[in-house]
Design brief:
Blueprint lengths: L16 H8 L6 H9 L3 H16 L2 E5 L1 E4 L30 H8 L1 H5 L3 E4 L9 H14 L4 E4 L2 H11 L3 H10 L15 H8 L5 H13 L4 E7 L5 H18 L2 E8 L6 H5 L9 H14 L5 E2 L3 H12 L6 E4 L6 H4 L10 H10 L3 E5 L5 E4 L2
Parallel strand pairs: 1-8, 1-9, 2-3, 3-4, 5-6, 6-7
Antiparallel strand pairs: 9-10
The structure holds ligand V47 and iron/sulfur cluster (SF4).
Length: 378
């Protein structure tokens, strides 16, 4: 493939020379390339390369969405299993909550005033909340907000509902689609490598199951997102192998909309205590690295999303020159990362999203959940 005419990138780290050549020739990067990119201290070369790839795909447009997170319950049967999570709790824990449908509809009412285009709905795996509750929630939301896209339930929640209902995950997905679900969020993937999974989420849905459920969704015409939880016990090889499995599924289905690396937050959870990491989140260097390397390895993805909630709005803004074209959205009220010590705001006003993008010298585009432009700014 012919490369763009930009100035030749000259890495300071000689290990990156063959990678620069490959990217300039439009060649796909390998496992070894990915590991070298994570290992290098030459962050600016990673950023320049990722920026070049992103500009080829998205020009100087940066997307954001007016979205609203809804978390129906924090009660989760896996609260002792996912040792990295501070959100999921037992039903008797202080602060445990489960929304009635009316409470969820009332929280969603804010959508009318602030122009929400997407509900992002995820939560814990509640032993007693049946599939019908979720189907009623989706139908009720669609009735009340017919133009708002519903992005709901991680593969882990879908597998849980299938298990308690004695259904297949495909059947659950079909019911969800009929009830108005338009796409799936990318959570629950964590790190696919079995050794890491054993350490941070033993007995949680295996990698193969997570990938199978996303494949099923794609086959039903439900697009989805995908994630990697980084910054805990995983190695660079674990990160790259995980990303390459996502690339493989994307080659097969084309159903992923975007990739979102998630920065591990160590407060108020077992893993943070075990690692002696409380109060020390990931560094800006590693946050930018994960975004840039994601852009470079996932050559078949249209978009790379920074979750500003986890890496701060400032790092997200800088990442717009490190291969990122999507700054998530307004969010309104985030709970999962804040339970684990995030010090970022729980939501950002629409105008602030526009300002962050503009000040980075990029063109803000308010998108819908499927990346169709809704409003473009100069
Ligand atoms: O699945 C849990 C992660 C995920 C912690 O699809 C943690 O557009 C960091 O998936 N530190 C939920 N991460 C969030 C998620 C997401 C977020 C934004 C956008 C999208 C999307 C998806 O959060 C969980 C888990 O992987 N998580 N605990 C923690 N302590
Ligand atoms: Fe439950 Fe999800 Fe937290 Fe695991 S990450 S404990 S499945 S809420």
């Amino acid at each position: 493939m012919a490369m763009d005419q930009g100035v030749r990138i000259r890495p300071r780290d000689p290990a990156l020379v063959p990678i620069v050549e490959k990217v300039e020739a439009g060649e796909r990067l390998s496992l070894g390339d990915g590991v070298a990119l994570f290992r290098t201290r030459d962050l600016l070369t990673v950023g320049a390369l990722a920026d070049r790839v992103n500009r080829r795909k998205n020009g100087d447009r940066v997307f954001f969405v007016a979205n609203q997170h809804l978390n129906p319950t924090n009660v989760c049967v896996l609260n002792k299993v996912c040792v990295f999570c501070s959100y999921g709790v037992s039903p008797t824990a202080p602060g445990a909550y489960t929304m009635s449908l009316d409470e969820a509809f009332a929280e969603a009412e804010e959508a009318r005033e602030i122009g929400t285009r997407e509900f992002h709905i995820v939560g814990g795996l509640h032993q007693k909340l049946r599939l019908q509750y979720y189907l009623d929630l989706f139908r009720g939301l669609k009735e009340r907000h017919p133009t708002v896209h519903i992005k709901a339930l991680t593969a882990v929640e879908i597998a849980h509902l299938a298990r308690i209902e004695g259904m297949t995950t495909l059947q659950v997905l079909q019911e969800m689609k009929q009830a108005g679900v338009d796409s799936l969020p990318g959570g629950g993937a964590e790190v696919f490598g079995p050794a890491v999974r054993r350490e941070i989420a033993e007995k949680k849905l295996a990698a193969e199951e997570w990938l199978r459920i996303h494949r099923e969704a794609h086959c039903l015409g439900i697009p989805s997102n995908c994630t990697l939880l980084y910054g805990h016990v995983e190695t660079y090889e674990d990160r790259v192998e995980h990303i390459l499995r996502l690339r493989e599924l994307q080659d097969e289905t084309g159903g992923f909309l975007t990739y979102i690396p998630l920065a591990y937050h160590p407060d108020h959870n077992e893993l943070g205590r075990r690692l002696g990491r409380e109060g020390t989140a990931t560094t800006g260097f590693d946050d930018l690295k994960n975004l840039g390397v994601g852009r470079l390895l996932l050559d078949n993805f249209g978009h790379i999303k920074t979750h500003w909630i986890m890496v701060t709005p400032k790092i997200s803004q800088v990442s717009l020159h490190f291969g990122v074209d999507d700054v998530e959205g307004t969010v309104v009220l985030e709970k999962i990362t804040h339970a684990a010590g995030a010090r970022t705001p729980v939501g950002l006003p629409y105008d602030e999203m526009v300002r962050l993008i503009r000040e980075a010298g990029k063109r803000p585009v308010e998108r819908d959940a499927l990346y169709r432009p809704m409003r473009e700014f100069d």
